[in-house]
Amino acid sequence: MAGKPKLYYFNGRGKMESIRWLLAAAGVEFEEEFLETREQYEKLLQDGSLLFQQVPMVEIDGMKMVQTRAILNYIAAKYNLYGKDLKERALIDMYVGGTDDLMGFILMFPFLSAEDKEKQHAFIVQKATSRYFPAYEKVLKDHGHDFLVGNNFSWADVHLLEAILMVEEKKSDVLSGFPQLQAFKARISSIPTIKKFLEPGSQRKPVPDDKYVETVRRVLCMYYDVKAN
Amino acid sequence: MAAKPKLHYVSERGRMEPIRWLLAAAGIEFDECFMKTKDDLLKLRKDGFLLFQQVPMVEIDGMKMVQTRAILNYIAAKYNLYGKDLKERALIDMYVEGLFDLNELIMTSDYQPADKKEQQLATALDKATNRYFPVFEKVLKDHGQDFLVGNRFSRADVQLLEVLLMAEECKPDILAQFPLLQSFKARISNIPTIKKFLQPGSQRKSPPRQEDVPKIIKIFY
Q1: Least CB–CB distance from B97: residue in A67, A96, A131
Q2: What is the ipTM of this complex?
Q3: What's the confidence (pLDDT) of residue B39?
């Protein structure tokens, strides 16, 4: 008897956000347990629920899955968002790797000092506009399809939309040189499951704030400084 | 007519090494094209061969693949080293992602500035001993089988062996508390394709020489 997947993480984006996006895009309802205290985290550790002592952790299909990529791979394959064959999977994996790297630069942002934040902001915009967005713009231009891979909606599309929106939060006109991506963004945002996820009241999490950073630091006893790229 | 895969990288381990291991384990011969200067990387970029202007890049089956995980996933699936179903793949993915993290920590410590290097390596070895190795020791203990997943050789076994050996290079007695990992190491090392890769003269790379590190970093930055 399959219950809904249950997500264990902080009440914020972090590494769990891509998982929320993918489940939502697949139309899969999920529950969440938010880590607020060190005690909760230590209990998970003691219960042996966290294979490498880390979150994200997702209870799904009788497994306590950890490692963001493993979880995303599983969900994508289970809900047919991973292409139809090996070659399509290869393309999806390449594209998701790029957006993952780009979102990784943003992931650490809230944990930086004010001075480093300024540097990192410039770094994120520079990488987005000179390395990543041009690659996806070209993919869409070259094949002229609505979706990145195989003329079919896939994980790659979800991940790219997530990345675009995150970068736009840093610089609202960042897509101005990228007409294909602008159209892509509008198109994918109107897919019913995604549209729903983008509405207020969904399980999508807001831009991380100081409270989020404080919670993470407290729960993980992570008081060291995070370096900028 | 399938040409051999062709690997584009520097003649170092870095992020390409797990790919070399997996191809070798699968018994696939491959060619290598080594970047020696920044110009070599710039040329690859200029020719439009690097989707995100980065290496590793592997020419395989008519594709110019980039992104280490994408390449490893493709090779593993193609050569049946990725489990027999979704659930086995989930386990394999969990294990290899954990090993990827540890591999990164150890590997990148060689490229840190002198004042950071020792500390990072110490952190890596501490995590190896207290976070990662106990997990794999327990997995092997709980099912009592020769391989990590599904009683069958998979990429998880290859990547675990790679990391065990990397850790031992840094601390020779690091497996002292892990008897099952010791016998795992011996067992997997004996698989013919792996045994061959472990012999001198194979395409396996060594840790970077200290004096080469600045030059290597210059190629990328």
Answers
A1: A67
A2: 0.96
A3: 97
